[in-house]
Specification:
The protein is mainly α and about 100 residues long. It contains four helices and no strands. Helix 1 packs antiparallel against helix 2 and helix 2 packs antiparallel against helix 3.
Length: about 100
Amino acid sequence: MREVWDATGQTSAAVIEGIGRTGRLVTSTALILTLSFLAMSTAPFTFLKVLATGLAAGILVDAFVVRSLLVPALVSLFGRWNWVLPPRAARLLLMRATSEG
């Protein structure tokens, strides 16, 4: 998202591009992880069933609620404030960028 915002200065364009590029990947990964944890929940051990079911539910909530709905909504709501760094953090990132190449 940051690259699109740097190029256009528009938060809405950055959100649309970010979700467009990563949406399918996040959804696919979440479904694969969920299915693998649900498969583990068929184990005969109660502890493993509870752990695997909880992890599967958490992954689904993270992928479909947090990453698909909450993050884009908050980024749109905060607007320009998403891209403002405190001066100390900005200097640190600038030093890293110049030392890497």
